[in-house]
Amino acid sequence: MKLSDNGIRILKQCEGRVMRNGRHVIYDDKNGQPITTGAPLPAGATIGYGHLIKPGEDFRDGIDEDTATELLRADLGYAERAVCDAITVNLRQNQFDALVMLCFNIGARNFANSTVVKYINNPNFKSARYFNLGAAWRAWNKTSGRVSSGLIRRREIELKIYENGIYALNL
Q1: Cα separation, 132 vs 135, whole angstroms
Q2: pTM higher than 0.85 for the full model?
Q3: Is 75:50 a contact under the CB 8 Å cutoff?
Q4: Residues paired with residue 28 on neighbouring β-strands, in sequence order
Q5: What domains sit in the chain, N to C, each tagged with a CATH number?
Q6: Is 119:136 a contact under the CB 8 Å cutoff?
Q7: Is pLDDT at 71 greater than 70 in this prediction?
Q8: Which of 6, 139, 166, 171 pairs with 12 at a CA distance of 20 to 30 A?
Q9: Rama region for 32: left / alpha / beta (φ>0; ψ in -120 to 50; rest)
Q10: Which stretches of 65-163 are assigned E, i.e. beta strand?
C-alpha cells in the first residue's frame, strides 16, 4: 500500500512548511524558523514537508512545490514499509494512511515497538498503561520531553482518519 492523495494532503498540512517568495526554504525543524542564507545548517535542518537535509544535498536556493512533494513521497517510503512490516492484520486505506502519518512523525523503530501496533495486531491485547488504542496513540504527544499542543492536535487528526476515514484538519 501507499499513502493516498488524501493522506498526502493532510500530512503536508500537519508537517507544515516555510516559504519565502513562493519557494520552500531551509528551516530549523525544532523551532520552524528559516535558516539565514549562508549560515551553517543546524542538526535538524529541514526543507519542504519535513525533509531532513542529508549531507551533500544543496537546497540553498529553495525548492518549488513539485520538488517538495517529490521529496515527501520519497521520504514516506520508509514509513510505508515500516507499517507494512509491523502490522499483521488487513487495513483499510484510511487506517493505513493514519498509521503512515504516525510512523512518519515518530520514526519506524518507535512505531514498530509501540503499543499502537500491539493493539492493532492483537484484538485481545491489554496494556496496564494505555486502556485502548486511542490512549496509546495519543501518548505520542511530546517533543523533547514536553507535551506539544501541535502533536496533540496531530494525533487527533490521525485518529479521526484511522477510526472514521475523516480527512480533515478541523476537529
Answers
A1: 5
A2: yes
A3: yes
A4: 45
A5: 5-164 (1.10.530.40)
A6: yes
A7: yes
A8: 139
A9: left
A10: 142-143, 146-147
